[in-house]
Amino acid sequence: MSNEWIDPKRRELLEWLCDPGRRLGIDRAVAAYTAAKEGALGRLPEMEEMRKEVRKIKEGSISRMDELVRQTVDSIADVKGTPYLARDAAEARRIFCSIVGTGKLVVKSKSLTSEEIHLNSALEDAGNVVYETDLGEFIIQLRKEKPTHIINPSVHVPREDVARTFSKLLGRDVESDIPSLVGVARAFLRDKFCNADVGITGANVVSAKTGTLFIIENEGNARFVSNAPPVHIAITGIEKLVPTLSDAFKVVQTLPPYASGVLISAYVSLVTGPSKTADIEKTIVYGAHGPKELHVVLLDNGRTEMAKDPILREALYCLRCGGCLYECPVYRVVGGSFGDNYFGGIGLVWSAFTGDECAVAVAIDACTKCGRCKEVCPLEIDVPKMVEHLKSNLASRGYVSKKHAEMSENIMRKGNPFGIYERRQ
Ligand code: SF4
């Protein structure tokens, strides 16, 4: 195999290494996150038991993922939603484009699963206008960049750069104090929610028995997005399905302290079917104050394959709290270039199945296997073990750099990686 696959990713890694501005944003975020998480966990001693329960829920759910998909499809249909199962990213994009059509105003709340399928560009190519409404995603969209953290997409953008981006948007100088910046986004996006034709959200967890989507957030934008437009489309990976409402609530309790250092997120929205009323003569009419239509796209895109690997399947337990990224010494230096469409050690595994395998094969060499990610993970996911396994899978498929091939040859022939001494007989 030629070594051409190395260069684009190596350039991206070097760009991050040479950019102190991006590291400044990450350093500030790490300091704030660490203090908040320690404070929250100090007030939640019950979390030690809860996170173990959640691990068991995820193990059980992934071992019967097919069955939960079938059950969820039936449950969503029962409550008059429209379920879809997308085998891959292309199929998911086709489903979205056929529901949205063309000439529509679309508002979105944060969904890394939608980033995974490159949804925005597909909708824009089909002639729609798309607004990200999560503040971090909005910043990234305006800067024409890609997210660099699982839950903090613009973590690498310091406040001074956000001010420059917003100044360009508004055509006037915007102060770089953070509350003013938040105010700019609030004012700009306000009317978009009510004028939108379609709202798109993700879902953090789904109860298969009832077809209920759980959407966890702090900003309040996902509530607008899932409620104000007449059509709501949700996309979620099939690894997010759990058997019951009670299982889903346990995930909801576990995620916020590890994701944002809070006891519970400001908003948890439960969506079970489209809006409806039976207030006049007990006759059900769909589309009262909320959306008239609810479409739910369940995305496979490599997850079934991942579940077949006895070691890499553990990545499907990931709650996407993002805590391991803040603790990762490599992520803190090379940020969003450490992975492809997902980041950090866990992101390498996810990207190998859902993104660019070549990019993963280069970035994986940056992992130090320090094991910090496993220590801080609420579910004790063994990321270093998965990275090691993935690396050997990639090498067996020919992803070995010229330098590594030379070193390996030197070890075989001369007993050292430098090729200096002849091997003693
Ligand atoms: S691997 Fe663990 S710590 Fe990292 S994002 Fe997933 S759940 Fe959070």
Overview of the structural elements:
The protein has helices at residues 6-17, 20-42, 47-63, 65-78, 89-100, 112-116, 119-125, 135-142, 159-170, 178-195, 221-227, 245-260, 303-308, 323-327, 331-334, 344-354, 357-363, 372-376, 383-396, 402-414; strands spanning 82-86, 105-108, 129-132, 198-201, 205-207, 212-217, 231-237, 241-242, 267-271, 276-277, 285-286, 293-299. The chain is of the alpha/beta class and 425 residues long. It has two domains: 6-42 and 322-411, no CATH class; 64-304, Rossmann fold, CATH 3.40.50. The strands form three sheets. Strands 1-12-7-4-2-3 form a six-stranded parallel beta sheet, with helices on both faces. Helix 1 crosses helix 17 (357-363), helix 2 (20-42) crosses helix 12 (245-260) and helix 9 (159-170) crosses helix 10. It is globular and about 90 Å long. The two termini are 33 Å apart. Iron/sulfur cluster binds next to helix 14.
Helix and strand topology:
Layout: H1 6-17, H2 20-42, H3 47-63, H4 65-78, E1 82-86, H5 89-100, E2 105-108, H6 112-116, H7 119-125, E3 129-132, H8 135-142, H9 159-170, H10 178-195, E4 198-201, E5 205-207, E6 212-217, H11 221-227, E7 231-237, E8 241-242, H12 245-260, E9 267-271, E10 276-277, E11 285-286, E12 293-299, H13 303-308, H14 323-327, H15 331-334, H16 344-354, H17 357-363, H18 372-376, H19 383-396, H20 402-414
Parallel strand pairs: 1-12, 2-3, 2-4, 4-7, 5-8, 7-12
Antiparallel strand pairs: 5-6, 6-9, 10-11
Helix pairs in contact: 1-17, 2-12, 3-12, 9-10, 16-17, 16-19
Residues 150, 258, 318-324, 346, 376-379, 381, 383 line the site of iron/sulfur cluster.
